[in-house]
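Recall the central idea of this unit: under ordinary conditions, the amino acid sequence of a chain determines the structure it adopts. In this exercise we apply that idea directly, starting from the sequence alone.
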Amino acid sequence: MSFLDNILVFDTEYTKVRVGDKKDGGYVVLEEVSLDTETLYSYGVETNSSFESEFVKRFDCNAVLFDHTVDNAAEDNDRFTFVKEGLSDHKHDQFDCLPNHLSRFGDPDHKTLKMDIEWCEWDVFETLSDFTIGDFDQILCEIHSIPVDYNGSHSPYFTDFHKFVYDGVNKMLFNKYQRVLDRLQQHYYVYHVHINNSIPCNNVFGEDIPPLLELSMVNKALVKNPTHCIDKFPVDGLDYPNKTDRPDITHIKWNQ
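Accordingly, the structure predicted from this sequence is:
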């Protein structure tokens, strides 16, 4: 089974809607589930708050926005609390962990987690307790499935040696990615996928793998009738290219 075959996409009894810009920054959420949201926790907001702004207005909730690389949210909003911190698996420097943030800024029964934290998601999700990882109504996350690639120039012997080592490192990386995705899918149904077209797919062990993949997930406890999705992605009206100067990536098949 390929790496991407392990990401199973489901339909649910809920309505999918797009929130945020029709380019980078927008995500697909479930309308009825989102209406119960009390707090949106959003990590890695940078200079785009289009998703957070529309989400709090449409679903009448508050949002806590985190980013250690900017000084403020992209816009003033009475429903926003901005925190100049990043997310990590432990507290250090300008970073704190998710349990500490929930303790500091509120841990309501109904909350949504949005995360785009540039590869750090793997350590965060791998180290969370089962309770914390499974305590959100929805998780919206861009995952970064990045391999290492050898581009050096050595003798034939050391070229083969480097490639052997790099293959071993990639096996360790993708084993970790798979463990985390399996763990998330123990608690959540993936209900939407979209490939970020900012950079092309990498060929890893003979498989085209998108390095940037946006996943929308819903807590399994909230779903009564999951069925395997037969949609082809991207979906017209829900998905738009992150980078508007190039087409979306469309050749990846799901639920094959």
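The longest strand covers residues 188-195.
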